[in-house]
Amino acid sequence: MEIDYSKHKQVVVIYPHPDDESFGTAGTVVKFREAGVPVTYLCGTLGEMGRNMGSPFFANRETLPEIRKQELIKACKEIDMDLQMLGYRDKTMEFEDEQKVADDLRQRIEELDASLVITFYPPHAVHPDHNAMGRAAFRAIRDMDAEKRPEVWANAISNGHEEILGSPDIVVDTKTVFQKKLNALKAHKSQIDGMLQKVRKGNEELSEFDLALRHFRYETYHTVNFNE
Amino acid sequence: MESINLNKVQEYLDQWTNKPVYVHVETTNGAYAKHFDANAYNVGAYVRNAQITYTQGKIVEQEGAYRVGLKHEIGWIYAEGLTDFEFNENNQLLMAGHDADGRLMVAMQLSEKPFNY
């Protein structure tokens, strides 16, 4: 399916962690930006509870939040995406008052006048923060007036989700813009270095670009219809 | 952080005996344990800024890893598997256990002032 990126006037991306945007949707964001469409990231937390401290250490529990905040800012610059940090805390999203989170999201979505929201598909998103953020975003959109309601593309990443949801109906091949996606991924140095090392085993002959392309090339979404 | 020095950590623990301090304790095997291994099970616990006054704080070594136990008036706090420590510029004693790839598995931290929240 050919996607007409220019038909949208504003995209809002809603995820809980610095790096969710780079893994899940950075190539799609670049395609929207190249079509002249503004994109804003509402990032829930600073990934304060990340586990990668490096070997040798580059962080500890108390210094990690600022490191990941700077990585997030850099990644958003790489793909020319506006950023709003929502100030929640990593691993605690599901314990917040969901309606309050949804009300805040709805206000921001309405203020930006979004025509498309990209978020996680609950409960098919593995990490409790992913599912909680997706639930709050879905609730925010459900709470909106039907005529103001944006289109919704949701990422499902759990094992076996296709048996329930079917195949994704939007598949973005990011190959032509992959250098920018890779730049965004690499901005999250605290997260990506270990991951690339892990998938490097058995693929020593591949360049970093080709290795990353193999794993992160396609960005897939299920569209969700709230008007039924 | 650097490898735990038992005597140094014991000195830091002793300075706060019978004084109110804030404690951070966590342990985790990550949010993706079950995702990557269907037989695995996600476990974790997290306490940030519980205030306690311990009457005895002690670090014990066994086979290169450390346990720290804090005894207080009405109970205990302890952490196991600690390997590294740092006393930072904010006068916070940070202790953590990491796996071979530098991933945090357990942490215990003490501070006179609350940790950022």
Automatic annotation (TrEMBL), chain A:
<dbReference type="InterPro" id="IPR024078">
    <property type="entry name" value="LmbE-like_dom_sf"/>
</dbReference>
<protein>
    <submittedName>
        <fullName>Bacillithiol biosynthesis deacetylase BshB2</fullName>
    </submittedName>
</protein>
<dbReference type="InterPro" id="IPR003737">
    <property type="entry name" value="GlcNAc_PI_deacetylase-related"/>
</dbReference>
<dbReference type="Pfam" id="PF02585">
    <property type="entry name" value="PIG-L"/>
</dbReference>
<dbReference type="InterPro" id="IPR023841">
    <property type="entry name" value="BshB2"/>
</dbReference>
UniProtKB/TrEMBL annotation, chain B:
<dbReference type="Pfam" id="PF08830">
    <property type="entry name" value="DUF1806"/>
</dbReference>
<dbReference type="InterPro" id="IPR014934">
    <property type="entry name" value="DUF1806"/>
</dbReference>
<dbReference type="InterPro" id="IPR036492">
    <property type="entry name" value="YojF_sf"/>
</dbReference>
<protein>
    <submittedName>
        <fullName>YojF family protein</fullName>
    </submittedName>
</protein>
